[in-house]
Each structure stands twice: as C-alpha cells, then as structure tokens.
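User: I'm writing a tutorial on reading structure tokens. Could you give me a worked example: one chain, its sequence, then its tokens, then a sentence or two explaining what the tokens reveal?
Assistant: Sure. Here is the example chain.
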Amino acid sequence: MGFQDDIPEDDKKAKKLLAEACEKEGLDCAYWLPKLSQKLGVKSREALKHLQYEDYLELECEVRYRWEKQALQKLLELTENKGRFEKLQKECLVYIPVWDIILFNSRNDFRSTYQVSSSLRAAHEALTTQSASPMFGEELVSAIEEARVFMEHVKGWDLTVIERKLLKLINFKERLNEKTKNHSVWVNVCLSDKALQEFLGNIVEFCKSSPPDNITYIKSLLRCLLDPYINSVKDFPSSSSIMQWIFHTEKTLPETPNVSELDDLTKTLLQMKDYIQEVTYAPETSASAVHEAKVKATLTASLAIYSLLQCLQERAQKDVELLVLLITTSMGYRVESSTFQYLLGCPEITFMTTQMQTGHQEYLNLKEQDLYRAQAHLLLTGLTVTPEHEAVSPEQKKERLVFMEDHMKNLWSTEITTLLEKHRALKDWEMLESGLQSLISGHLDDTCDEAKKDIITKDMEDTFQRVEPSSQPKPTPDTGKSNADQAVANQDFLHLLKRLGLENHYPKKMGIEDFHIIYKTSLHDSQPSKDNELPFYFLQKLLTVDYRVRYLTCKEENNPGPTPGPNPTEQEQETSDSFEDFFTDLDKARRPAPRESRVHPMDLQMAIFHCADDFMRQYMLTKLAFCQFALPLLVPNPCTSQIELPIWSLSQIKKSWKGAEKSGTRGTIKSHKNKLIYQAETPIVSFIRIGSSPSSSKSQILNALLSKQKHDTFFHRHCKGSTKDCLLMKGVVEISWYCPRGSDDDSFGCCVAFCNLHGDARDHKEQLQFLQEISAVNVAFVSESDQSDRRTMTILRDLWQSQRPLVCLFTEKENVAAGRSSQNVKIGMKNRNEAELMEELSKTIRDLLEKSNTLFSLDACLDRARKHGFVVDEDTDACVTAKGKAEALVKLLKEKKLFEIKSQLLPLQGKLWYMWCKKDKELTRLQEKGNKSIEHHRSQIESEKSAIRRKQLDKAFPLNQLMKSVLDFLQSQPADSKKYFLQWMKVFMDDLSSDRLDELRRQYHQLWSEILAIKKNSEKNDMNPVLMSELEALSNEINDSSIGLEHILREVGQIYEALESTKSNNEYFNKLPEIAVDLMVSGYPIELMDGDASYVPLRWVRAIFDSLIEELGDKRVFVLSVLGIQSTGKSTLLNAMFGLQFNVSAGRCTRGAFMQLIKVDEKLQQEVDFDYMLVVDTEGLRAIELANKQSLNHDNELATFVIGIGNMTLINIFGENPSEMQDVLQIAVQAFLKMKQVHLSPSCLFVHQKLGEVIAKEQNMEGQRRLQEKLDEMTLIAAQQEFCDVSCFSDVIRFDVNTHIHYFAHLWEGNPPMAPPNPTYSQNVQELKSKILQAAKKEAQGSVLRFSSLKDRISDLWNALLNENFIFSFKNSLEIAAYKKLETAFSKWTWDLRSHFLDLQMKLDKKIWKGDLQKVTTDHLEKQVQETSDAILKDMEKYFSEDRDCEILVQWKSSSELKLKELKESLLLETRKKCENLIELRKNQSKLDERKSEYENELLKKNRESALSLKGQKLSEKELRDKFICLWADWISEVSSAAPPLEEVDIDVDIEAFFTCFQISCQGATSVTTFAIFLCDKIAPALRQAVYERTALAIARDMKAKVPDFRGNRASLEVCLLRYLAEEEDFEMFETYLSSPEDFLQLYIWKRVDEYCSENRRLETLLENSLTLCYECILSAVSASTKVVKDRIDRNDKISLWLDAFCQELGEVLSLPRRDLKGIEHQEVTDIEFLNNAMTESLSAMKDQLKKELAAADMNSFEIQPHEILAEQFSGCWEQCPFCGALCTNTMPNHDVDHQLLSHRPEFLGGYKWHKTDHLVIDICSSLVASDCSFRIGEDKWMPYKTYRDAGPPYSTWNILPDTSMQVYWKWFVSHFRADLEIFYNGKFQGKGAIPDSWQRITKQEALDELEKQ
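And here are its predicted structure tokens:
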C-alpha cells in the first residue's frame, strides 16, 4: 500500500514498520492497521510491546478468519506468556485470587468469611511485596455476585415486552463491562446461565412461530447481546440455531440445500463465494452488510454439508464422507452441531472447494489403480489438510488419526493396515507421512515389497520344484518280442520297410517334427523316382490335401511305355505276321522277365502308419479324413498280429453335417459344425466279406453308397496303382462317415459310420466279433461257392441270430427268394444295374436304421475293445497321465460359470491388462495437465502402470490351482506328455465352450442382421442404441466365453510381464518363456498380438525370442505374414501349405496374430539362405464381432504390424465381392505405403480364391487388370492421407501383376460335407508354396533377419504404431545398430589411417632435419600411404559386402568411402604442409648453417693443424685443455679478422665440442673412446625426442586397443564419460561438461591417459620399451656401418664413410643430421672393430643414463601429447540439440545422416524456461515430440513439437524419436544436483518445472545401469 505525501516522514516510517510487522504475520494491512489505530491507538511497531491481554480481547472480536487469532497473538507478543495466555483464553476468571473465591463461594464454611479473605490477601502482599489488584478484589466478586443475582431475576421472565427485557440485558451487559473492563463476567456467568439461554431460545422460537412486526429490531438487540461473545461460551446448545435465525433474512436466506453429490456441494460453496464477493464489492456496502452476507453463506454451507453427509451415509460411501469431513472440519465445521465455529469468508470457501475437487479427483484416480494408494491419499489429507499459515500439531494429528481409523474401521487395505501398525510402534509422524507418500506414488515400502517378492519366489519355486525332464525316448511297441523276433515274424513286412527306406523308423519312430520341415522339393513339383522316395512324397502330397496321393507311383511307372521283353529268336523273327497267326497260340505268349511288383498304395499308407508315432498318426489320419478317405479303425500289427484301435489318432478329426438325430426322422434337423467325430454317437454299418468275391468289390459298393461322385473313399481293386497283392490291409477295419447336408437328396438323414473289414471275415474273428457288438446294421458279401463252407455258415448264423439287422449281398445270384424279414434282408447282385442296386441297398440300410436305436461313438467303444484284448493307443502311460491332469483341470473350470472362467481363473488378461494397455498408450500421447509438466504426466502414468502390475501380482500369487498345475505339468513332464496334455486340454476346453458359443454367435448374427435391416430402412441411417447395447453385451459374452489354450498361455505371458516389472532376476521367472519356446519349437502357435486387447505384450514376446535364441541359436528367419477378410480360408490355406494349425479355440477364428515356426531343411537352407520360416497368421479383417467397435483402426494397426514384420505378406482375397476386396486392399496398400516411408520393403503375393473353378486365362487377365486398377486407386487415396508422392502401387513395392497374383480353385470338388478337396486347389497350394520359396530365395540378404533382429523389429514397429504418427515415430533399431557398428568400424579405419600418418610424419621430420628430404609432394606422400590406404579400403569393401547387415549398410557405403577419402586428403594436405613448413624452416636454418659452417671449418682446420703438431706427445687432459685454451684465443682472433662479419655466435656453447675434436685429433688411435662419447652426446637428445614421440603414439594405440572407453565410437565414449561424471558426483565437472563439452572431452581423455600411464608404472615401462627399440636400432646402425667400412681399403676417410652409413641407417629412427658430426669426420681411426666396441660401450652408458632420466618423467615431458592424438580421433560431430543442448554422438564429422544421440535430457539444460517465468523446463525432447505441446520460435511464433522439423534449421537437421523409456540418468542428475542447478541456471524447479517424486527415488546405481544398456 502507498502513503500520502503530506504525512511526516517519521510517521511514514513508523507506519511502514508496523505494516511490515503485520505482513510478517500474514495479516492484511489494509484491514488491521485502521483497527489497531482506532481500537488501541497503536500507530507504531514499538507501541505493540506495551499491549496487554485485554487489548487483544478488544481486537479478537474483529477477527475474520480463525488463523488471524494466532497471527494477532504473535503480533502483540503475547505468546511469551503462553501459559498465562492460554489459561486466560480458556477462562478469564482463572486469576481470581483464592481469597476472593472464599469470599464468594465459602460463606457458610467460615465464621468470618471476610476476615479469612482479608488475612489471605495480606499474607500474599507480605510474601510477594506486591499489592493485589483491585480488579481481583471485592469489585470483581461484587460484579459476579451482581450477575448471579440478575440471572436469578431472569428465571422469572416470560415472553411479554420482549424488547424491554432485551434492552435491560443490554444495559446490564454494558454496566458489567464498565465495572470489570472486559466481557468475561458477561460470557462466563450470564451467557453461561441456563435460565438466560432458555429465555433467549424461547424468544427465537416465539418469533419463528409468530413473527412480530418488530422482528428486525429484536434480531438487532439479540445480535448486540450475543455477537461475538456467544462464540466464547463453552456450553450453549442452542447457540447455532439462535445465531442462524438472527442473521437470517427472508429475501436472501436460501432454503435448505438438497445436496447428494460432491459436485453439488462445491457448486453451492462457489455460489456462496460469489454472493459474498457481490455484497463486499457492491457500492457503499457497509461492514455490517458484509458480515451479514458471511452469516448467510456460512448457514447455507453448513446445511449443504449436512445434506451431503447424510446422503453419503445412506450410500455407505465411507471414503468420500471421510474426505468431506476432513476438509470441512479443518475449517471449523462441527459435526455434532452441523455448523461452523466461525463465519466463512471467500478464502475459506476457496480453500474447501479446491481441496475437495482436487482431493476427490486424485482419490478416484488412485482408487482406479489401487485401493491402498487412494486410502493413503485419504490418510495423508486428513493428517496434513490445514488452511494457510496454520500447522497441524502432533496432538491434532493424533486426534485426526483416531477419528479416521474409527470412521473407516475394518475398511483399510492390507498395505495401510501394515503401515499404521508400524506407526503405532514407532509413533513417528514424519515417517508415517513419508510412508503414505510412497504408497500414493505406487511404491510400497521395502519391507512390504520384499515380503511380497518372497511369497512370489516361494510360489514359483513350489511350482517348478521338479527336476528338468530328460530327453524323451521314442516309444516302443507294446509287445514282448524283440526286434529279432519281429524280424522272424514278418520278413515280407520288413522287406517292404527296407524297400521304402523306412526300416530306421519302425516301430513308431517317425515324429511330426520330421514332417513339419520345408524341404527342397517344395521349390519344384516333382515325382518320386525310387521306392524309397515314396513315403516322403506321400507325406508331402498329403500335406497339401491332394487326394491323388493314393495313386502315387514312381516316376518311371508313370509313363512306362512298352515293357521290354527278351530279344526274339531268329525263328520267331521269321514267323509271318498273318491274320491267322495273330489269333493262334494265345497261350504260348512269352512271359516277361520276372520283376518286383509296384508297391501297393495302401501298403505305402499303412507302412507309414506303422512307422509313425501317435502324434504323426493323428496328423496323418486328420489329413486323410480331410481328403474324404477311409481311416484305419482296427489295425493288426504286421509282426505280432496284435490288434490296435488308434483312437488317439482319430481324436482330432472334425466333421460337419446337418441332419436328424437318427435316420428317417425328419422332424428335428440339427446342425453340427466341426464336431469331433470320435465323440459323435452315430449308427455304425459294418461291411464284411465272407470268402472271396472276385466279381464284385465291397469297397467299390461302399464308395457308391457314400458318394454320388463315386469318390474313392475306400481303396479298391480297380483304383489306379492297385496291384494284385496287398500286404498290410488284411484284417484292417477302415471307417468312414456319411455326413448329410440337410437336403432332400441326402442318401441318409443322419450321420452314419461305415466300417469295412478288409479280407475274408473268416480269417479275422476278433475284428468280426467287435464289429458285431458295435454295429447297428451288418452287411455281408457272400459268394455261392463259399456258402457250403462250415465257417461261412457259422458266421452267417451268428449274424442272423444277433439282435442287429443283417443284409446279405449274394455276389453270384441275380435273384433271391422274396420274403424279407423285419431285420434280415437278402439282395442279389449278379448282373444288376448299379444304380438300381445302390438305390435298393441304400433304402434297405436306411429302413433298417430307422428301426434301430443302436448308436455308438468311437469313444464309447473303447471298453469293448479292451475286453477283446485290443491295444488302445491312448492307454500309454504318458497319454493316461496327461488325460488325467487335463480332466482334473477341466473339472476345475466347470466349477465356474463359462463366462466367469477367464475373470476368476485367468484374471491378469482381463480388465487389468486392458487398463495397462490404455496407460501404456497414453505414454505416446502425453499432455500437460493443469500446472503439471509432461514429465509429471509421464511419471504419473508410469506409477499407474506399476500399480496395475502389482495388482496383477496380487491376483496372480499365490498361483491358482489351474495355473499352478498347467505350469507344473508343462515344465516337469517329458515332451510327449506335454503334447498329449495340450491336445486333451484343447479337446476338453472346446467341449466346454463350443455349444454355448455356437448359440451366442447365432444370436449375434441374428441381432446384427436385424440392426442392418433397421439401418437400411431408416431415413437417418442411425443405429438403434438399445439393440447396439444388446449386441455389445453379446459380443462381450462371446469374448468372455471363448476359452482356449491360447488364453492360458496369454495368462502365462501376463504373469511373466508382471514378474518382470519387479526387476527380479529369479531363475524361475525365466522358465515361463522357456515353456512357450518348447511349445513353439514343437509346432504349437504362440500369440504375438493379443486379439482381445489388440496389444502386443512386448516384454513377453522379447523374452520368448531370447529363449528361442538360447534354444536354437540366433538363426536366420524368413517371416511370412498372412492377411485377409474373415472366413476367407486363410487358416485352411496355411494348413495345406505348411501343415499349420492356427484355429486355436472353438467357436471363433484366429484372434489377434499368432506365430508358428517351421524348420527349413539343411539342403534348402543353402539355397534360400535362412534356417526357419515364421508364419504369422492374423484374425480376419472386418471381423463381425468387431463391427461395432473401432474396427477400422484395429485392422489398420494389425495390417501395418504384420506387414512390417514380414518379409512377404500373403494377401488372401475370397470370391468376387468388390466391397470386401476394396476393404482388404485399402488396408494393405496403406500399410505398404507406411513401410515405404520408413524404408522397409516387404514384398507381397495376392491369393485370389475363386468360388468356382479357375477361370480361363483371358478372364484371369481381365481380373488382373481390374485388380491393378483397384490397387492403383487405393494407392492414390492412401498417398493423399499419408502425404506421400506416389501414383501407383508399383511405386510402393515391387509388384508385377502377372506374377504376384495367384488364382486358386475352389477348395471342394463338389458340395460339402461329403465333397473331397479339389486336386486343382492342392496343385495351386504347391505352386504358391514354390513361388513363396522362389521369392524368398531372391530376397535381399539383409532383409532376412535373425531372431534377435526380428525381436527388435517387432518392438520398433509396435512402439511406432502406438504413436499417432507412425512414420515420425518409427525407430529402426536394426539401422541404428548397424550404423553404430559402422561408426565403430569407421573409427578403426580412420585410426589406422591417422596412426599411419603419424608414423610417417615422424619419419619425414627426421629426414627433413637431416637434410635428406628437400621437397615433399602429394604424389610422394600418396605412395607412402598407398599400401595402408589400400588395405583399409579392402577391409571396408569386405565389411560392406560380407557383414550380416550389409543390405542395411549399403546405403552408407558411398558416404563412408567419401568420408575416408576426405580424411585421407585432409591428412595428406596436413602432412604436406607440416613438411613444407619444416623444409622452409630447415632452409632458413641452412643459410645460417652455411655461414656458420665457414667459421667452423676454419676453426676445425686450425684445430687439426695444431693437434697434428702435438701428436705423439703424451699430455694429460689438463695439459691438453690448457694448450687448447691458449690456442683458442689466437684462432678466434685470426678467424674473426679473416671471415666476413657474422651474426653473433655463442662460442661457449660449442667450445666443448671443439675441445673434444682437438682432443681426438691429438690422441690419434687412442681417441676412439672419446670419439664414441662425443657421438653418443650428439645422439642422446635425438634419442630422447624419438623415445617420447614413439611412446606418445604407442600410448594412444595401446589405449585405443585395450581401454573400453576408446575401443568403440563417439557414442560409446559418451557413455563412458557420463558414467565417469556420475561416479565422481562433482557438479563442477558437470558444469564443464554442459557448458564446454569439447573441452571436457579433452580433459576426460587426458585424465584417462594419465590414469592409464600411472597404473603399475606403465609410463615408465612404455618409455623403456621405446628406448630399448630405439637403442637396438642404433646398435644395428653401428654394426651395419662398421660392416660397410670395415673392408674398404680404398678409402682413407673411413670415419667419414662410417658416419655417412651410420646416419643413413638411423634416418627413420633418429633426427641426427650428418652435418652436426663434421668435427669428428676427419679423425684417423684405423681399428673399426675397436670403434664398434667403443660405440657399444658408450651407447650402453648413454642408455642407462637416459633410462634413469625417463624413470622420473611424467606426461608434461611429452611434446606430442597422447590425449591430443586420441581427442583428434574422437572429435566427430559437435552439433548440439536445439532443445536440450545434448551433443550429437556421430563419430563422423559432416555426416550425411541426421544428427542424433543416445538419449536426450531435460530442456532446461539447453536454456529453456517456462514462458514468462523462471521455472526450469524439466521435460525431455524425446517425450515432447510425442506430446501435444508447442515451443516458441522468436518472439511470437509457436510450433508443435510433433512437427518440429517444419521449423527449419537447426531443428530440421535433427532426428528426435519419441522415447517411452525411463531415461533414468538425467532424471537422477536433476534430482541429485537440484540446488546446484537452480543456481547455475538461475531458475527454480517449481510450477510446471517441479521435479516429479519418481525422479527423486532414482538411485545412482539405476542411472549407471541404464548407461550400461546403451
């Protein structure tokens, strides 16, 4: 506030100080300064010191808010006398002296009360030397007495003349006040008196019931009496209602609000706030008006709160009720009276509404995630909620906690209960609040968390406690005979096996894994050429459901031509070829040479059957059934004759039909779809042959009965390939089923099973007896010749006498006697018309079946089979064990309602998983919420995700009986037992749900059709909401009722993901993906995308691939994806092509995406260059179940995902429906376009399955043209949506309409369900398979990924799909990894080149200084580096051509070559310049040297002349030196006068050298030692320099090769650098790194070099190594020079020659110029050997001396620093992110690709603050680019982060990918150095820049661990 100018300066200053004192306590100066002045006369801060408690009471009535009382007490400094003050505050009479009390209350206890009172007062004055205040004497007692007397008078008052009586009370109040100087007696005596309270209450009630005319006046009188004193009365029950009535006015007092929701309460409170503000700021508003407005608002608020609390109590919403109570009571609300203790103002109302709104919303959010988090929020609110300027004392917290615990009672969660128990023990409020905060954040305290982990670990240990199973041995046949016995038993059979190449597979050793392999023959449709190839080709054709497999023969037999016979004799040749001869001697025809007959087709089939294990048999019979072939029901063992009933092999065969429950009853037609036929109860008709019937074929008759097309269901003698002898079919009973289609021309009205006993029934009694027991009708073929046979008649009699009807077919009789009985019929067959015969036979069987009630399922026949001693294949131990376990688990499932099974037994994949998916997706759509930043939003989401995972763990553990049993069985049992178990589970679970699902789907389709009809007829084209709701409910029930093995495995995946979130490395956790991998490898489909949640569980999928790599190795895998409209035969096509079974549960097609692994044969691997094929099948696009959901987006995501991960996509189109075709094409084209934009190039093949036969070629061409046009049209539409410049489909992918479209024939040859598959369809399948493999063979090497790369590709695609902008968000991890490898390789190549140049530079330097090199050209340098350069280029070429990622790397090949070339040119230029500079320097030096040389030569000449004169004289060194010094002066003066003027020469430097030369010359032959010493002195400096140079380069090379920091590229060095910074925890170092990254890199490398060299005295070692190397080179030079000169008798100047050779040898080792040795070149040394020895000794001494010197060396001794060499190598790119300032980590300077880095960091590190604040931006670039936020460019231009590239440079040069990872490192850094960062960046972490709690929990170790992953 301001002050007037005319106020004196001293007053201004005093008022200002007083205002500051008020503001310090939070008091409003505008309000309180006038009060202090007017009430107490206080105008300065000093005056406050003199105020008493009574003065405070004067101000207390002016208090507006409760907190102002405490503020006033502090202002008036009354808190120093706290004890006195509090007592006075509670009761003003507390200081009444004891004598006054006696005087007043004890009159009857003493004889003289007054005397006792006076004596006590006198004694007090004597002891304290203080006089008693008169206030506390008789005056006060008198006032109290007077008040009590007056109250006695009031007792008699009635309600007449109310005004007068109230005025009396007012006068009396004023009198008391004057007497006592305060209102204490009025409050504590009068207003506390019950009589007065009753009187006042009666007045109010009277006025309410009969309002008088002067009611306003009465209210004002009452207000004068009571306001504000009533607030100090302890016990005044009716005070609230009295005061409410006083302040109530008829016009504005609202009616009691009816509030039932919290929103209604906040709305009411805000209305009251508006009302107060309206009154307050109205013109000329008085203080009393404002006061009255507050009264009204308080009353309304009280009533509203009361109303809401009542509603909450009725609804038992204890939690919300508690929240309301906690907030309102903190503002003075009293629950007992439902009123506020003080009047409410705007601040109080604002406080309550804000707290309620935010608190309730936060509570609901947390409750949705975890109840314990919400309850923790409730508790923390209760303990801490308080208005500003007030604190909650420990006593208050205790009271509040007791209240909350009492209110919630037993409703607390386990986590809250645990925390409260801990608090009761410790009683630490700070710890309790911290614990609550942790719970709110989703972090259970360590004890609770660890306890939960222990429980989980124990549960997992119990589940996986069994020992790992050993490898499963192949089953042996159930027979006691040895192989040798079996060989003796049936040599013909074993010969057949050998002939077919099956001897190693018998018995039952051929597994399905041998069959589920893609063989080389798949590339070409070929035929077997030898018998031993027949089984393989049989199985391959059976795979494609080609029923012509029955007629398979070897290639030479297909077109045998004329059978070659023996050459005719001459006599035969001479025989005339006459007509007569042609017809004569027919019996004399030549017999061909005997040869082995062809293998009978049924022998081939049965041989394979006997060699196949149970699973292979099951697969084989399922395929045969699909081909509408008869199947073996009873099979004699060819070696033991034991009969087997292969019920397990038949257990997966499904049939569909529509017919009556039994034949002949047309009333109830029922549909059966995909029913397991072995469970179906049907009549069985058995056909047998008694004796032989050469004239008729029983199997042929059966075929005519079953198929009007006469499909060869049963193989017969007239089938192609049949031979006279069949080894393995005798005694075999085959079975097939007639399945009606519900039409009038059905042969039978119900499903009928037909059994056929092969061979003579007389030879197979056991089979015959079994058939008699189970058959509804027996049909016997009898020949006339066999009727007389006793055995024949016995069988016929048994059949006649049995209870089952008999049909006898007499093969050799035309007519039989009439008179057929009711159940035994005779029919003659001879010479009968086939059609008539079939009609009669079918009618006969039909009629007999109508009368029969005999129905059997194969399942029900098992007990009978066992009684006959038959072997039942499912009686093996493994099968029995598995079936028992499956039955027990299904029994467990049946205890639940079908639609509740998933929610109760598989709870993790339901609502919790959907919630987690939703939250995970939110990470890609981050938003600012209120005053919270993006990172706060991210942290909140991460916490919520963690909370959901914990909820999943709570639900998952301890594991329920279903999951525990499944996991235990799958982990502990052998492979075969697991296969049996999974098969039984599938059967039983399908049984559990199929009927109900069929009914639900029928209802769904019916309702959907009704909705479409209404929509079609509606003008508005709107959906009926009621019907849509019903449809949604049906869809949900279908989803809930669909239960299959895939759901159990999905639950396993969710358990793993929840466990993985705990970051525990328990070994048992990893067994979960191992279970999935075992299933995957054995051929079971594994879910890739959850079809219900439309989400990919990435952690689970990645774990599966990791386990797969561990199991199989990191193999190459070709991915084939399949797309198509729902129910278009995709799964059938895949089954026929690869033998895959994707239909994983009953009642609906594939949901989501499933992957199945197929091994590629080793021979084919070499051709196609991959090891496995991974087939990804998808749910049908445009599925009707999803029609009312976001199906378009779901389909687009699914298509983009599977097309992206596939090397090839098979797009399946069915029929000619143009709308359906357009749907799939539009989805596929858009997906392919996205792939093109992210540089992925999958190929595609279109499969068009026609409704009829394959049409003519011309029509196909027309179809191709239309499809091409449609594709181009869809491409243009998609290109517009994706903003991509393409005009036709072939611009998007490689597509040729002539070769990439395959037309398929219809699947069936005729009308199902009895129609066999169309052979042309099978042929089309084979052709397509071949086409796929041919295309895969041509696939680029780099596009066929390994498992590890495919794992990353899946992650990349899914993460990009989660983002709104797929193209922008796609991160190609494979490219990134490949580029990182390239950077590392490039770093090696550049280092090799750079280090070679450094070596070369040192050598050239030495040559230049020696004068050996006068000119350096680029060509010369090129030659010097050519070898190294060529080697590097060769290595580079090899890298780009042979690396596993070469196809990815090729895009950077040319730029890398260019960069290397540029580096080479740069180094050449740099080296040439250095050399040129050195040469120039050398030339300048030479000029000086030449002038100096003249001077030196003259001196040397004088030196030698004088030395010669002294030669031969024996002089000591001292005498020699004295002589030299005398001569020296003469020489100098002589030379100086003769020579031209020279620049000043420092003679003292060289004088010693001249003396040495003089000494050598004088000594002659004895001077060799001195010569050697002189030469070593010259060598020593050069050697020292060479040692340091070599060592510098050696250190750099050593560290580059051995120190991890420098082995990689710039990015890896950056990781090391960040790790170092974190370990040091020195903020000043961080400052340097952030402000000067290049300098810090230099510093870091220097430190690493220093550490490396200091370690174990490594520097000393390296220097010594260099010294040794150089020393050896010098010794070698001495030796070589000696050798050169030793035998040169033609030269007298041997020393000169020796020095020439010596310097030449050392040319590249030392810089030792020859000219520096002129002084000793003329010496006479004749003994060169002696010189050699002398040099060796001197060099040794020199080395020792230098070694001592080097031992003390440090890094400062180096002229060329090692760290500078390394720093130059890692200079790379120095561009910084325009947002966060992080460095681009590309190793290559001026790189072509966009700038990028390992991880971005908070933007404040790049200088960003929130707009118009000093709040630092903590958001990270890689989060922002996926958000809806914007950034500012310039002053007023804002740009969305999502389109940051549009902002132009530098933004457009950066590739910032959305990143949902935790980015832990920089979050730890910000939290750890918070205070330092605020100072350094001059900002605050407040507002949107507040640091999230989750950041503050990150440890340094977690930050370091994240770096390790990079």
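What the tokens reveal: The mean pLDDT is 81. The two ends are 59 Å apart (CA to CA).
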